């Protein structure tokens, strides 16, 4: 500054003009230095660092570059130059220092914010992130970062200690608790969800209260985002997964088997004892050949040993068509290539009702994919419905308009 004033004084200018002009020239020089420093930082230093990072074998530092941590950090260089040059302008020194320092604090906050984003992205690249997501914790850290950064900025502008502002916030604790209620509840819920391994990214969850039925695609501090199977998005509050019940299908997906639980309703009027002709026909069925030979031998031995009069079917032991059909379904499922052989397989009778006698199939497919599972289930019941008449059985169906019209035609024909 003195050098500039000496040079201007040589041109015969008055003192006041020299003062203003020297300050303008100094401002221009500082601006040029800041531009040059920023150019060197961005084009040389930063590019050198990025080149070195891309050449090494680590991936985490590439994520740091991708989140522009170093780019944001480079903005500190001009601010440091301006802050260091504030003493040149004695009349405005305090104002310049406060402005430069405020800018540096804000830049530092953005750097730490980008660093937290990079940390989350690095963690997300590992498989453990699906089991233990940390996005909620990162959001909490950001909240504290912005709160502390805001307090430091305000304390710098009003020239007071940050502790004074913090002590004043104690009186606002009730208000803060109200404002950040959802965030606090979300943080507590996030800790419980993570520690108890209740929900992971990619889990299929079902929560009828919120009409949620789909895959978890994001877990944040306040919400859990579920993409439903109709491609709609449901946002569930994190604490709702703690306070309310929900179904997680992860166990089914991990087991490798998906349950089939469905009933075939048999018309009870079609149930009867097996005749000799029926038994001979059943012997021709591949899955029943050995069973029929074995069970018929056991029944004959049982009845002969007890001298039972078999002229009446109700005496002694007899085969029924529904019993043989039940055994056939069981054998058919045991030999089905898409049924899980190491999981429960039951074909059972339930209590008869208005719709006939339910034969319930309880089994597990060996493919948990939704489309494949539905195809397997449909193929099985297609076969069961088609096979029922072979055993002299009718599946129950409520009368339709066609049935009633057919009955009326038959009745009219008989009357005529």
From TrEMBL:
It is a multi-pass membrane protein. Residues 332-388 form the Mechanosensitive ion channel MscS C-terminal domain. SUPFAM superfamilies: Sm-like ribonucleoproteins. The keyword Transmembrane helix applies. InterPro entries: LSM_dom_sf, MS_channel_C, MscS_beta-dom_sf, MscS_channel_2nd, YbdG. The keyword Membrane applies. It is found in: Endomembrane system. The chain crosses the membrane at residues 20-40, 76-95, 101-119, 140-158, 164-191. It holds the Pfam family MS_channel_3rd. Residues 182-250 form the Mechanosensitive ion channel MscS domain. Keywords: Membrane, Transmembrane, Transmembrane helix. It comes from the Bacteria. Belongs to the MscS (TC 1.A.23) family. PANTHER family: MINICONDUCTANCE MECHANOSENSITIVE CHANNEL YBDG (PTHR30414:SF0). This is Mechanosensitive ion channel family protein. It comes from Paenibacillus spongiae.
